[in-house]
# Entry
Amino acid sequence: MNHHSPLRTRSALVLGFCLGVTGCARAPSAAPPAAPATVLVSHPVARDITDYADFTARIAAVDSVEVRARASGYLSKVNFKEGAMVKKGDVLFELDPRPYQALLNQAKAKVAQDEAQLKFDEAEYRRNSHLLSTGAVSRSDLDKTLAARDVDIANVAADKAAVASRQLDLEYTNVTAPVTGRVSRFFVTVGNLIQSGDQNSGTMLTTIVSVDPMYANFDIDERTVQRVLLSMREGKAAESAPETEWRVSLGLATEEGFPHQGTINFVDNQVNPKTGTLRVRGVFHNRDQSLSPGFFARVRVPIGPPHQALLVSDRAIDNDQGQKILYIVNDGNQVVARSIRVGALHDGLRAIEGGLKPGERIIVNGLQQVRRGAIVEPRLLDMPTSQTVRQGDKETTSQTVRQGDKETTSQTRRQGEKETRSQTQQAGPAVRLAARPGG
# Structure
């Protein structure tokens, strides 16, 4: 039985070592309380604003002309560069004038012929008038010469009218620009036969559109029309001001805001029953020629007088089951959700029509870190616009990522050190036991 003593002794030592290690292990310490999250807060901006409505519009030229010839003939010359600016009266096309020149000369010759006949019949009438008293001619002969003279007078008048007509035909061989504006390409080339006439039969040579001023046509929904009429009845809008004095702003798709200022110069007399809209037209100066016919544009129309309002950044507004809310930090630095009614956007800030008081602290950034009733650490700054908030989000995200990287690296280093010490402590007794003699 003595030969089992070393084995029992070794088992007892291993069991004692395991119990010692288990008894000496430290209990995990409780996690320290989390520090309040830092959030950016701002006071609402109080400002005088004007209610407005935005609509889509199409740019149109005040003058748009299809250039057609008023005389027929072969095209002999084109005097403009395609797409260039032309002035009213500039000669754009020239037709072959020789046939019309010949007709004009013929008409002038007919005038000279009838004037000579008139001269003869006038002299014959005067002669017979003197001879009537002597009885050399009868009264009937005198009447015949008088009628011949009157016919000659009418013929001369008709011939002169024919000369004027032929002169116009000759002038029409030079096709001039009816308005000042930008010309399109020429649709026919030299040598082609040009037909005169209206839109159905005449040959269209080119088109011209005026460039300054420009029209913007848009449709206003009947709800907005009723709001404007209601404001007029309540005295909020200037009912005495004519429609032509209504100010309107316009911006193109590639422009920021509404840099073009103009006025409304036409309002239709009835709402279209098919679309439920009212056609309105604004006129805008276009000295820099940035507006072109057919452009898509955004139009902003004021629909009320200026009034005081509170404005906040759009990024501070959150949704809660379809309800717009703001997160307010009260005097105890506690987060409170507030239901609000939002209005239009003014210079990057959203108007709040109800649910907000002046001077309250609104969380404008870090909404994902807050919850209702949470205690936060507010940091006050001026109310940012949407662009400023987006830039702050990028910087905050970058800082958070960098901070997270540092914390992850630190945690990994501390965890590695703990594992190394634990492995060393576990391996230490076994090494010492193995190093004993007779072990």
Q: What stands out?
A: Residues 21-25, 238-244, 388-405, 424-439 have pLDDT under 50 and may be disordered. Residues 386-435 form the longest helix (50 residues).
